[in-house]
Amino acid sequence: MEKNNPVSILFWGRVKIKYAASYYTFSKGSQFQNLIHKLKYHNKQEIGIALGRHFGESLKNSEFFKDIDLIIPVPLHPKKEKIRGYNQANLVAIGLSKSMQKPVQTANLIRLVHTDSQTKKNKLERWQNVESIFELMDPTLLENKHILLVDDVVTTGSTLESCAHAILKAEGAQVSIATLAYA
Fold it and tell me: Which residues are in the Phosphoribosyltransferase domain (predicted)?
């Protein structure tokens, strides 16, 4: 694992991230795209946990992720989570937690606004769609902690950036990022 990988570079000059990594590079038509699609749209929740667990095995052996205190998945808006029935980022976080032996926290970082899907938006539209839509319920719970922020896929990084800005309002907090795929 390299410190200055394409995922880390994505956040340079945007938000202070300690480390960032993705398990796969996402390519259209690949078997991995098929797995992510099944996870997100076909209720194949076990895929998220299994991939998270495998990814966690590599992360726990990396010097960059050894001091993680807490794993936080990117939250869905309650309306979207009710429609889907689950949060795929949370499933990945559960798998990571099993391998890395770190707790998952899902109730502190919340999504305030229900937004449109990002899939058909360009970089600027994606950022405008998620700007300031996340908030910490209790910043003191994250003070002086190294947080592993988790999502399924990173494309432009706008959602993760917005989440990281919210988390970094906690005094002394540090954020690293882990996603299953980099598109």
Answer: 115-182
